[in-house]
Every structure is written in structure tokens, then in C-alpha cells.
Design goal:
The chain is built from six helices and six strands; from the N terminus they run H-E-H-E-E-H-H-E-E-H-H-E. It has 217 residues and is of the alpha/beta class.
């Protein structure tokens, strides 16, 4: 084998070795953040969110992270987080964590009261910040809402969001009374959120049939 050929072979081997090392270091855990809309009449829907959370808890593995937060008047704050956890590598400890998590969520749902406004963008900002701090291999944000944002006076949310590496899934997007009169309002609302997520580099989906959650996680 000539010297140039040996150099090319060695270089190719080094590239493959570095690529393999890079794959080993890529995290394979999941980070999940679920936002629950508690505004107005949608607050009556929050009991359905518990079904989603129980499905998620069953599917999450050791080292995975999860947080559940409410969407209310001002959602970009730590106090909106109802429960959060990163599951232990030990199955018995992880099971205890999951039971405690489910208990906190159940208590919240039992005591949930309607909020006067809906700060969806603030909730998404909080979700992005939380998951980026966890550095999971897969980042997923679930939004349980009618996706109608209604901000209190003084709240500014006209900002770009960085969704690179995120899957964003809108769940149970119920139709408002106005949507029944003009379905274009419903379609326009969903299209606006899809555009916002995709413009930020993320992937957008809508799942309204809560009996078909196989695509989650």
C-alpha cells in the first residue's frame, strides 16, 4: 500500500472513530413538559389531562425528565410548575417518584380554578427553558389547550421562540363557540401556532383523539 493510500485509510478510520465517539456521547433520554390550560371554560377539560400524564408516566424511562405546568394569566414563572421530576436509574425509586408525581397532579386537578387570561407563549418560554436546562436527547412539549391566547394588559409576548430540536404537540384543541359559527377561526388559530413553531425550527402536531396517543414519546 502506498503512503498516500495509507494516509487516506488512516484518515477515514479516524473520521469513523470520532463519529462513533460522538454517537456514544449523544444523550438518549427524554424531556417532557406538559402545559395545561386553566383559563375560562377550558378549565372544565383539565380532568382529561390526567389521562395524558398517566400515559406519559408509564412510558418514561430512568433518567427521563417530566414537568407539568398550568397556563394562566402569566405563565412564564416557576410557580406555574405543578410537578417536576427526573427519574432515578433504580426502578423501585423511579416507581416511587412516578406515584408521588401522579399524586401531586391529581391534587392540582381536584383543586383547579379558572384563570381569567391565557398566556400560552409564556408557558412555552418556561417549557423551553426547563427542557434546555435538562439537556435531554429528545425534547417534547405537550399543550393541553384550545390554543386561544388571551393576554392581560401589559403582557408582551410578540417574540420569536427557539424550538430547534423540539416536538410541540397540541392536544384536545376544543372548538370555541365562535369557531362553530366560522370554522376558519379555528383553522387560522392552529395554522398561526404551527407557523410559529416551525419558524422557530420545531416540529408541530395536533392530536385531538385522546384514545390515539401512540405517537407520543
Amino acid at each position: 500500500m502506498s503512503r498516500p493510500t495509507r494516509y487516506r485509510s488512516a484518515a477515514a478510520g479516524l473520521v469513523l472513530f470520532l463519529a462513533a465517539c460522538g454517537q456514544v456521547n449523544v444523550p438518549r433520554n427524554t424531556g417532557l413538559y406538559l402545559l395545561i390550560d386553566t383559563s375560562g371554560t377550558y378549565n372544565r377539560q383539565v380532568t382529561k389531562a390526567e389521562q395524558i400524564i398517566l400515559v406519559a408516566l408509564a412510558r418514561l424511562q430512568p433518567s427521563d425528565s417530566i414537568a407539568v405546568a398550568r397556563i394562566d394569566t402569566g405563565s412564564f414563572t416557576e410557580k406555574n410548575i405543578i410537578a417536576k421530576a427526573t427519574f432515578d436509574d433504580r426502578p423501585s425509586t423511579a416507581s416511587q417518584q412516578k406515584r408521588a408525581f401522579a399524586s401531586r397532579v391529581e391534587k392540582f386537578i381536584d383543586q383547579s380554578t379558572p384563570a381569567p387570561f391565557t398566556d400560552i407563549t409564556g408557558g412555552l418560554l418556561q417549557a423551553i427553558e426547563f427542557l434546555n436546562e435538562k439537556h435531554p436527547g429528545h425534547k417534547e412539549i405537550l399543550i393541553f389547550s384550545d390554543m386561544k391566547e388571551d393576554l392581560a394588559k401589559g403582557y408582551v409576548r410578540d417574540i420569536p421562540l427557539d424550538f430547534k430540536g423540539f416536538d410541540v404537540v397540541a392536544l384536545n384543541v376544543s372548538k370555541l363557540r365562535a369557531d362553530n359559527f366560522d370554522p376558519r377561526e379555528y383553522l387560522t388559530r392552529l395554522d398561526a401556532w404551527r407557523t410559529k413553531v416551525e419558524k422557530g425550527g420545531g416540529h408541530w402536531r395536533v392530536i385531538n383523539d385522546l384514545d390515539r396517543l401512540d405517537g407520543l414519546l
